């Protein structure tokens, strides 16, 4: 019993000591950890090699040179010498720069190429205007003519050289299109008139059977007529006009030549008949004075004698080529 009591007192003493130890001296707090600041590491810059545009520049310069040649061939030296000189000055400067600089020159050279293309279109437009004026065709499409003239006047001003090449090219092409419209209207109207005249001339040639007596010439005239139709419906009224004119002249030539020869032949027949009649009158008078009977007399034609062979036109029905009196409009216009 005594032993149990000793154990209980011992346990109580240990508990008390533990309580005192916990409450008397607190454990020290841990010091805060400061963040580590890392110094940035500088990476040495690596210079990239600059791109070499030398070959691309040379190709563009060659393209510009070709555009310049086309402009000169179109007549720009007479049509717009100042514009050509301005473009040439830029070209020479760029050629000199290309020899010492391998940088990208595409922006300047593409603009310069457009300038030469614009000069070519300007020269062509001016030539078409001159053609219209010389033929007095402006009245066939006055609105398009006036629009083209206005654009040419704008492009002829010195300050127009300050306009970007692409804009100048668009203007010059618009002027050329305006004059094309005038010429197209004129040639269409004239081609229709000439076709009608050629058709009437063909009817005259058919009336004298030209397809029989002058078949090769007749067939050539028909071919010109049909070529005119082909050019007209495919949008080439100027070519059609030329074809119809040739056909008309050929058909008229055939008619006049054959008709003239027929007239001369008919005159010969009439003269022969007159001689026969005169011979008959002489014979009657002679017979009255000294009858010869019913026998033939040398030098006097029989009254039923055939003096000339009659024309044989049995093949004419199969040799005449028929063509239409009307013509269809070009496909693109018919669909509008």
Automatic annotation (TrEMBL):
Signal sequence range: 1-23
Biased composition (Low complexity): 26-35
Keywords, in A-Z order: Signal
Residue span of region Disordered: 26-54, 282-336
Signal listed as a keyword: yes
Protein name: Lipoprotein
UniProt source species: Treponema rectale
């Amino acid at each position: 019993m005594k032993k149990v009591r000793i154990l209980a007192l011992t346990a109580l003493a240990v508990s008390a000591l533990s309580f005192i130890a916990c409450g008397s001296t607190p454990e020290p707090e841990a010091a805060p950890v400061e963040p580590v600041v890392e110094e940035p590491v500088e990476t040495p810059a690596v210079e990239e090699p600059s791109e070499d545009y030398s070959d691309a520049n040379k190709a563009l310069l060659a393209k510009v040179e070709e555009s310049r040649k086309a402009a000169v061939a179109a007549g720009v030296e007479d049509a717009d010498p100042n514009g050509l000189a301005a473009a040439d000055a830029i070209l020479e400067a760029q050629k000199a720069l290309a020899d010492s600089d391998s940088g990208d020159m595409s922006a300047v050279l593409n603009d310069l190429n457009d300038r030469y293309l614009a000069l070519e279109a300007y020269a062509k437009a001016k030539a078409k205007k001159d053609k219209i004026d010389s033929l007095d065709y402006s009245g066939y499409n006055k609105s398009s003519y006036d629009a083209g003239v206005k654009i040419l006047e704008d492009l002829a001003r010195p300050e127009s050289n300050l306009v970007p090449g692409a804009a100048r090219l668009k203007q010059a092409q618009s002027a050329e299109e305006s004059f094309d419209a005038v010429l197209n209207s004129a040639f269409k109207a004239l081609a229709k008139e000439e076709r009608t005249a050629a058709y009437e001339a063909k009817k005259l040639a058919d009336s004298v059977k030209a397809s029989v007596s002058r078949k090769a010439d007749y067939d050539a005239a028909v071919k010109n007529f049909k070529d005119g139709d082909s050019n007209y419906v495919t949008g080439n009224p100027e070519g059609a006009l030329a074809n119809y004119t040739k056909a008309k002249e050929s058909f008229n030539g055939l008619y006049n030549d054959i008709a003239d020869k027929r007239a001369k032949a008919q005159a010969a027949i009439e003269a022969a008949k007159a001689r026969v009649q005169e011979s008959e009158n002489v014979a009657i008078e002679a017979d009255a004075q000294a009858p010869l009977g019913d026998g033939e007399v040398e030098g006097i034609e029989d009254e039923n004698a055939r003096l000339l062979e009659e024309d044989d036109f049995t093949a004419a029905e199969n040799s005449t080529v028929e063509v239409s009196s009307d013509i269809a409009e070009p496909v693109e216009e018919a669909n509008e």
